[in-house]
Prior knowledge:
With 173 residues, the protein is an alpha+beta fold. The chain is 46% helix and 14% strand.
Amino acid sequence: MRFCANFGLCAGMGERGVIHVGRLWDAQKETHFCVLAARGFSPEEAARRAGLADMENLLLGRARVRRRIARLRAHLDEMFPPQALARAGLTRIALGDASGALDGQQAGGDLFHAAEVKLAKTGGVEIKFFDRLRALSMLAEMGGTSGGDALLEALSLSARTLGTDGEAPAGHG
Length: 173
């Protein structure tokens, strides 16, 4: 059995060249795999997310795919320098919706905001989230983001307004 660029797995040669078995090869899925691999996903995870589960070895066995991943990594490094990626991640932690982590056990659950996920001894799941205020503070140290400084000021003012015991002062609430 060998790999065919057009159709995937091939059983052997027929009168017109190759007898193809399995599904039609999808170039869009291959592209999706390359992008995910370039973004740092493991080959197994990239193949699964691209709809090509258990085919990562076949894909990485192709020189064209390896070259494409290398080119995409280079372009991503140029377009998104590490500091910009850090700023984007911190912004997502500070201002993004963390409710997707609650669906993390289901396929497609977003665990980006989860700092730690543990299985409890009771059989439940414990999820610890990243600290939003710390993320805002780190953004401020990096030079802020659009709207991040205003939100940080509003949160700081809100924290100063609260009493030391966490209760709002009389007449506020």
